[in-house]
Amino acid sequence: MSWKETDPVALWKTSSVIPNTPEVNVFDKGQPNFDIQKTRLWKSLREMSSTDQVDYMQKVIKNWPYRSERWAMEMAQHPVIFGSALSSFYITNRVAANIFLNKPKAGILETMRTTSKAPLFVMFYASAFMSYGFWEVLVRSKFMDTQKPCASCLLSTGVTISVCTGTLFPLIGSPILCYGILLRQLGDDSKYASRNLFEAFALCNEFTKYVKPKMPFLIALQAGLAATAIYAHDWANQKIFNTFDVDPEIVTEAVNYEEPYSKWKSGLDTVIHTLQKPI
């Protein structure tokens, strides 16, 4: 067939049909799609018990080469603990000023100089240790598990721990502790002691009424610190577990790295691991 017999319209229709080819993304760097369930490292982790998984991850994180991720997993809860202890110290100081000095607006330093320091330090350290223990067992240990934790679900747990140890606990404990010390100083504690739960509740409410206007600020502070720590843990968790597939040699080096451990830190880790064991 010569070119004279060719139908130009049919030729144009044929050439205008674009084949259905997949679109190529020039910005695609060709990142591999790893299946984490099939890797050897993940398989060995799945076969471990929950306690062994926590021990393994503790060692990996302690020797993790990337500082930002290691600090996000190890140090993010420290502002929460310090915030709870400081909030408890402030509430106890205001309650002590009301009970011992009968001056709710007395300065913090004046209250520390002229009143018993036992309630301040007892509530400070009690809140710090309670916050640390609950956070390690109920929050941080969840980010050590091979199953990806729900950060939004743990957010409520973290905020509850922070608010309870930093505000609710000193609101209840500091009036009772300060009032008990006051009764011992008076000598005759039977005359002024509360005789039932209603009287104890009334005393706590009376002694804390001047610090209650500060509660919204303290609760917001505790909630903000807890939320920041939760999402810092979640970010570090994603980074570390993604590295398990990309570069497993880093994990092996972190596990095999031996660092001298002090006796007190080793004992503290033993206590924490014991508390983290499933009941």
Automatic annotation (TrEMBL):
<protein>
    <submittedName>
        <fullName>Uncharacterized protein</fullName>
    </submittedName>
</protein>
<dbReference type="Pfam" id="PF23408">
    <property type="entry name" value="TMEM126_like"/>
</dbReference>
<keyword id="KW-0812">Transmembrane</keyword>
<keyword id="KW-1133">Transmembrane helix</keyword>
<feature type="transmembrane region" description="Helical">
    <location>
        <begin position="120"/>
        <end position="139"/>
    </location>
</feature>
<keyword id="KW-0472">Membrane</keyword>
<dbReference type="InterPro" id="IPR057591">
    <property type="entry name" value="TMEM126-like"/>
</dbReference>
<feature type="transmembrane region" description="Helical">
    <location>
        <begin position="151"/>
        <end position="182"/>
    </location>
</feature>
